[in-house]
Amino acid sequence: xxxxxxxxxxxxxxxxxxxxxxxxxxxxxxxxxxxxxxxxxxxxxxxxxxxxxxxxxxxxxxxxxxxxxxxxxxxxxxxxxxxxxxxxxxxxxxxxxxxxxxxxxxxxxxxxxxxxxxxxxxxxxxxxxxxxxxxxxxxxxxxxxxxxxxxxxxxxxxxxxxxxxxxxxxxxxxxxxxxxxxxxxxxxxxxxxxxxxxxxxxxxxxxxxxxxxxxxxxxxxxxxxxxxxxxxxxxxxxxxxxxxxxxxxxxxxxxxxxxxxxxxxxxxxxxxxxxxxxxxxxxxxxxxxxxxxxxxxxxxxxxxxxxxxxxxxxxxxxxxxxxxxxxxxxxxxxxxxxxxxxxxxxxxxxxxxxxxxxxxxxxxxxxxxxxxxxxxxxxxxxxxxxxxxxxxxxxxxxxxxxxxxxxxxx
Length: 410
Prior knowledge:
It is built from 15 helices and 13 strands. By secondary structure, it is of the alpha/beta class. It has an eleven-stranded parallel beta sheet, with no helix packed on it. Strands 12-13 form a two-stranded antiparallel sheet.
């Protein structure tokens, strides 16, 4: 790191660019020889990094083999800065993780980054979340996945993808045997035919590599879920399915329960912000009760579930010990429900870090308060209160502990 600091100061002088306080602080504090440079704009004092800072930073990192990850979230990087990053990607022999979440990169920037990855053999994780690369930029990234043989995780959620680019990713994944996780949440879809869901389902039938799929905010209905479930019955690899913020009701939950009953591989299921109601929760509970159920985490936050459905889920947890994480905030918590989940926690069956509710008592009555735990608590922000590990990001904790995750990264 001392050598990197000297190199940074030298490049600043050579290019006649001012030093950046955040870069100086990170380089001064980071003493690891095998590390990630964390330069997230929302977690550093002072001004955020710009395109000119990218020129200096990328030239500083040229030829460096110690830096494995680069976290550049929430900065002011545009297509011009993306060109500098693309040069670094193309030349790097060590960079494994690149996080460009919520910058100002558009289609042209996505294109140069995609082209730089054609010959890259080290990068495993690319996160473009929140950059408005649109359909054109996403098509370039999908094309890149036909050539690149190293990437394992790609996040293009909230990037204004259109139907064409989502379908392109699905088609590419039919043949790509390296991608283990993909996030295509919140595309801009204007059709009611659910073409993206149909193509993702067709991909799941033939893909035996993908472990994690995020399809939040796809306007998916029960019909789309049924199509997806028919494919899941034939899939043996998917472990994490995220269908949050769709239009799934009790019928969709019933289709998912049928998949879970067939000894499927799913371990994490996110149905947050749908409308499965009591009947949907009861269907899921019936699947969870089965001794061969592998489901470890279930999120049904804000699903209009009342007493019957929530009590059914708590009873299922008492029967089967495989489900260790459950998230129920945003539903109707009547007193029997509060008592049931309070009992699960007091008995040790449900750890307080593995749910998003916390019991308390007033005048002899038990209530549930919201607790700040969730499947992906730190997805859009960075914890400022020290290292927040497994307890706050359950999906990552479960994935890290599972043997399939270790195998996928070997």
